[in-house]
Specification:
about 300 residues, alpha+beta, Sulfite Oxidase, Chain A, domain 2, five-stranded antiparallel beta sheet, 14 strands, binds the ligand Nc1nc2c(c(=O)[nH]1)N[C@H]1C(S)=C(S)[C@@H](COP(=O)(O)O)O[C@H]1N2, binds molybdenum atom
Length: about 300
């Protein structure tokens, strides 16, 4: 069992910060992380080969600068308004074109998956970016276990609806539940993960506890939080931001500095934590993961399929 996120935790005592600084030290430190003791311990696997060696953002930055409209639209709202959210117990309905549909308890999902520590560069459409050391496993692992049927072409995701615990859902700001989707080949790609933790501990509520998607080559809004349903389908699913404004937000939403958002350039980004006067850096195509994912879009016009 992973420790519940506790805002008062002294994280340096739980997970030596140096262990997270880069992939090589993560690999070297994997054994040491296992001795945290008793029920609090969790197994630290090696970092993913896809991990960046860039230093991660601080826990403070990762947990106090969020987008999670279910808790409000301000960047600090999720941190301030999510303490009453209950991520435990949790189950995920997996249905549609799968061999073994059902309501799966989170513990059963995690029991069978290979958890792997990963450090991913993560970027948002608002033109800010962070490096977050996720704990997660490949979505493909789960999809293979439930058995995707031959005709399935897309995966649709939904966030939980709990207005009593999620104050943002008491207004009609978005058409709840928050929805996202991936094409099946995107969903099966090893860079697409379900994250259940960060910095070696359970996911904080504001980051999408207890389980959320991370798709590092796409804009941040694709990485849907607090998932309760995964639906396999043969038709392109409706997605929240596309439903709200189809001209501004397409289904694919690949990070693409060459395609501007109608209201702002997407050619550069500001790394959160770089300070007020930090230089903006050029955004890379597919957030720098092009060598791994560009082939998924061979023959597609990405200015049309944005
Ligand atoms: N359910 C849900 N998921 C969501 C959002 C949201 O408002 N609701 N915001 C998205 C956006 S716009 C971003 S940038 C990322 C932010 O993730 P983080 O706060 O963990 O960095 O979550 C995404 N997932
Ligand atoms: Mo975002």
């Amino acid at each position: 069992m992973r420790k519940r996120f506790d805002g008062n935790l002294n994280w340096s005592e739980v997970t030596p910060k140096a262990q997270w600084l880069n992939r090589r030290s993560l690999l070297a430190g994997a054994g040491a992380l296992m001795v945290a003791g008793g029920a609090q311990a969790r197994i630290a696997a090696a970092a993913s080969d896809f991990s960046t060696d860039a230093a991660p953002n601080t826990l403070e930055e990762i947990t106090r600068y969020n987008n999670f409209y279910e808790f409000g639209t301000g960047k600090e709202d999720p941190a301030n308004n999510s303490a009453g959210f209950m991520p435990d117990p949790w189950s995920v309905k997996i249905d549609g074109m799968v061999d073994r549909p059902g309501d799966y308890a989170l513990d059963d999902i995690l029991g069978g998956a290979t958890l792997e520590e990963r450090i991913y560069r993560f970027r948002c459409v608002e033109a800010w970016s962070m490096v977050i050391p996720w704990v997660g496993f490949e979505l493909a692992t789960l999809l293979n276990r439930v058995g995707v049927q031959p005709g399935a072409k897309f995966v649709a995701f939904e966030t939980v609806v709990r207005p009593e615990q999620m104050p943002g859902q008491r207004s009609r700001l978005l058409d709840w539940p928050y929805r996202e989707g991936l094409r099946l080949d995107e969903a099966m790609h090893p860079l697409t993960i379900l994250a259940t933790g960060l910095y070696g501990e359970a996911l904080p509520n504001q980051n999408g506890a207890p389980i959320r998607l991370v798709v590092p080559w796409k804009y941040g809004f694709k990485s849907i939080k607090s998932i309760v349903r995964i639906h396999l389908t043969d038709t392109m699913p409706a997605t929240t931001w596309n439903m709200l404004n189809a001209r501004e937000y397409g289904f694919y939403s690949n990070v693409n500095p060459g395609v501007d958002h109608p209201r702002w350039s997407q050619a550069s980004e500001r790394r959160v934590g770089g300070g007020l006067f930090a230089k903006r850096v050029d955004t890379q195509m597919f957030n720098g993961y092009g060598e791994h994912v560009a082939a998924l879009y061979a023959g597609q016009d990405l200015t049309r399929d944005y």
